[in-house]
Amino acid sequence: xxxxxxxxxxxxxxxxxxxxxxxxxxxxxxxxxxxxxxxxxxxxxxxxxxxxxxxxxxxxxxxxxxxxxxxxxxxxxxxxxxxxxxxxxxxxxxxxxxxxxxxxxxxxxxxxxxxxxxxxxxxxxxxxxxxxxxxxxxxxxxxxxxxxxxxxxxxxxxxxxxxxxxxxxxxxxxxxxxxxxxxxxxxxxxxxxxxxxxxxxxxxxxxxxxxxxxxxxxxxxxxxxxxxxxxxxxxxxxxxxxxxxxxxxxxxxxxxxxxxxxxxxxxxxxxxxxxxxxxxxxxxxxxxxxxxxxxxxxxxxxxxxxxxxxxxxxxxxxxxxxxxxxxxxxxxxxxxxxxxxxxxxxxxxxxxxxxxxxxxxxxxxxxxxxxxxxxxxxxxxxxxxxxxxxxxxxxxxxxxxxxxxxxxxxxxxxxxxxxxxxxxxxxxxxxxxxxxxxxxxxxxxxxxxxxxxxxxxxxxxxxxxxxxxxxxxxxxxxxxxxxxxxxxxxxxxxxxxxxxxxxxxxxxxxxxxxxxxxxxxxxxxxxxxxxxx
Length: 533
Fold this sequence. Notes:
Blueprint: E1 2-10, H1 15-26, E2 33-44, E3 51-60, H2 63-69, E4 76-78, E5 99-101, H3 105-116, E6 122-125, H4 130-143, H5 177-187, H6 204-220, E7 224-227, E8 231-237, E9 240-246, E10 251-253, E11 257-259, H7 266-274, E12 280-281, E13 284-293, H8 294-302, E14 319-321, E15 327-334, E16 338-341, E17 351-354, E18 363-372, H9 384-399, E19 406-410, H10 411-416, E20 434-436, H11 445-461, E21 471-476, E22 483-484, E23 499-501, H12 512-530
Parallel strand pairs: 5-6, 5-11, 6-7, 11-23, 19-20
Antiparallel strand pairs: 1-3, 1-4, 2-3, 8-9, 9-10, 12-22, 13-18, 13-21, 14-15, 15-18, 16-17, 19-21
Helix pairs in contact: 3-6, 3-12, 5-12
């Protein structure tokens, strides 16, 4: 097959026009084109004209001869092999079973790949199964009742379950492992469009049933999923792991333990430091959630094409390098979504963004965050970033007035340096509720300075971004893990053999897709170790 890139058509083209465009691009008779599939579809809004841009895989007669005709043209190349190939298969007599700690996107894919290779993993998840977890999460949003073991951060599906469900990433992926992730999602019930859309997403409601289906496959293949099983300690034999101890006093023995922790597993991080597992502090970002009317973003991004069904709710990605040396950027943008309470600890306020598949809520929201680093902002040991986060989250709880209300401010007042006393035209979506105040009272001064500088720059890219009534809701503190549980080329901890740090909590992923890819990589490392390779 041949892959054609940069095939551009009008927004409202017909399927027949796409087929004609493929044949026309190749300058081949229509009968020679035996079939084609869309590998990727994106859009191009430059020059005021909206077009769809395709990457197409074509099954064509006389392929070698045709390809030779396009020699030197980067738009035509042989279609790469994107199939996934397992690194091994567990022998029937293998008695050891790997343990996977955590059942978010990384843990799910680590367990799934291990199960598909016959290793029958045991998964230990501190939270509850996804539907019960959803009820507990709504308890915080509707009644200000926090369950510290079952919330946005902890439970089946991980933090990604209560998000926009974005399935794109900027990671290098020469083995096309991201394709394996997307294929497994489609098999579990995701719409097939995620295989070809340039910026696919699923949304919370669809993720719930998909997670359940993937759990069922792991169990069918001989794996186990044990919920409400918090790992409180490691069982070590010198520099080797031999298993884990649970909060209920039980033990699970294994010489191969995957740590697929989320970025909020703070008590587990503290345990690992006490056990001497090598970790190091890493940069992350802090800031707020910013909400605009989705109609404003649609108009700014799509112009006269706003509302077109193929385009849906518009998103954006913004970056500004401030004069004080800080990067200010949009993070985890959620078109047509809501700002959600995402704390996992009592008397702390944390925000995140979430969308459903339809993305039809009235507001657009995004993280509006500033980069920070351990060298400058939280010097100390590997857990210094946790202390930095907790201090900000506690201040946000106090400034919000308690009961998990979040502090909020109008953008215009934030720019003017004065506290807000009432809302304007934009109604914030955060539940349990917000308290109008001055966010400069809790944000670090360098953040406030950089954010105020960035707003006019962002408004030049998104007309109306500097809307006075846009709402800032604080705080966004868990953009990524504040530490890295460093691993070697074999996927194992630098100083504890048999321990495999993985995913977002270990500092090796950021988002659903990259976490899933890392889960696959770590599953392969475990398989090789168990097979003696």
